[in-house]
Amino acid sequence: xxxxxxxxxxxxxxxxAPGYASEPExxxxxxxxxxxxxxxxxxTDLSYLxxxxxxxxxxxxxxxxxxxxxxxxDEDVVAQLTAILSDNALGPATGSGRHQTLEPTRAGEYRxxxxxxxxxxxxxxxxxxxxxxxxxTLESYRQQEESVSQRxxxxxxxxxxxxxxxxxxxxxxxxxxxxxxxxxxxxxxxxDEGGRA
Length: 197
What we know:
The chain is mainly α and 197 residues long. The protein has one domain (29-194). The protein has six helices and no strands. The protein has helices at residues 11-15, 29-68, 81-87, 107-116, 131-171, 177-194. The chain is elongated, with a radius of gyration of 21 Å.
C-alpha cells in the first residue's frame, strides 16, 4: 500500500501534504507551475506503476484461465506474455483521459516493488505456483493496484487544482503568454550560456 507520510521527503508526501494545493491563489505563477509540474511527474510515476500492476494481474489471471480450461497444457502463460503485455502494459494508458508526455522517473524501483509483493514469484515462474499461492498473488496485486489508483486520483486532483488556477489567471489577464515565453527564453538562454538553468 502507498502511504503518505506527513512531513516526509518523498515527492508523493509533498504533493499530497494538506497545504500543498490548498490556497493556489496565494502562490506566484512560477510556484504554481513548479508545483503543477512536480505533481504531474508523480501522476506519471503512479500511472506507470498502475500499468505494471495491471500487466501482472493479467498474467496471473491468464494462468488461472489456462488451468481452468479443458486443455490446460496447450499454451502456458509464458508463451502468451507478448499478447498479454501488448494488450495492457505496452498499450496507451487508459482511465484518466489524460495525454502524458512525461517519462516515469522511478521505473526500476517500481518494478522491484511489484516483484517483492509476491516474494520470489516472478513473471517466468508463475506457472509453478500452486493454485492457492496464485490466488494470494492475484489478491496482493489487486490490493496494491487499488492503493495506487486511489493515490493517483488524489494526485490528479492536485494537478487539476493548479491547472485551473493557472488557466484562470490567463483568462482574467493576471498572467500573460508573453511573460511565459519571456521566462522560457530566459531559461533557455541561461542554459545555453551557463550550461544550466
